[in-house]
Amino acid sequence: xxxxxxxxxxxxxxxxxxxxxxxxxxxxxxxxxxxxxxxxxxxxxxxxxxxxxxxxxxxxxxxxxxxxxxxxxxxxxxxxxxxxxxxxxxxxxxxxxxxxxxxxxxxxxxxxxxxxxxxxxxxxxxxxxxxxxxxxxxxxxxxxxxxxxxxxxxxxxxxxxxxxxxxxxxxxxxxxxxxxxxxxxxxxxxxxxxxxxxxxxxxxxxxxxxxxxxxxxxxxxxxxxxxxxxxxxxxxxxxxxxxxxxxxxxxxxxxxxxxxxxxxxxxxxxxxxxxxxxxxxxxxxxxxxxxxxxxxxxxxxxxxxxxxxxxxxxxxxxxxxxx
Length: 323
Description:
The chain is of the alpha+beta class. It contains 7 helices and 15 strands.
């Protein structure tokens, strides 16, 4: 263990660590907080990061418009399906901050040099941007998954970014990455290791949105009791059951945002498609139209029966209106 002023770096293969102080002053024993070269956030580092105004995204456009559509389709579906709940949070193309050094690396990459120097000059930030000796660190700092879900948290308000030490140590429970030729290696390598070993994310799914009908276009892993990812077997329809979401994940051929292709979609336990807000509104409108049409037919049938009865009464010499 190496101690530096106001910064603690822990290196060990089994990150089972003692309680750590967090922003709310509580003691967290979740071993995921400092695994794999993560730093325990002390008060000075936390104050520095608050003052640095951590960005929620990098402002860069998605690599492919369809990837952006796929993210929105997934979020739209889950938020519609769980619209009566406020105990979950879904994020897409949003930064996830899980360690001090990772947050510092993101700031270095996104802030101009003069901005970083200004932050470092502030009282208490003397060590804010001290280089850490991690030869294995990638040149591009980890910023976040394409889409993620956190369960059993306060979902009544939106965040601009997910900051683990401000969320009582909570990492995403389910993560989705949408593969492309430029991201496949990282998504299946570095990111998978982070989600498995550091986040301890229960389920991780990948979908190749540019080759959606391929045999290996949709796959996922689930942590076993030893904290190791094991492949999730597909059912007879090629869908993967999510224990955390209690939904199946599969393919769906159709049009979304005027883009007709095969998308990753969620399915209810009974096999019904999880609808987006627009689809649910359209379905509701169609049901209302059908009910109105049924009521109109019932009224027409009742009127015809009344007319037949009136004719029968008149044939018997009885005036219906006088009855």
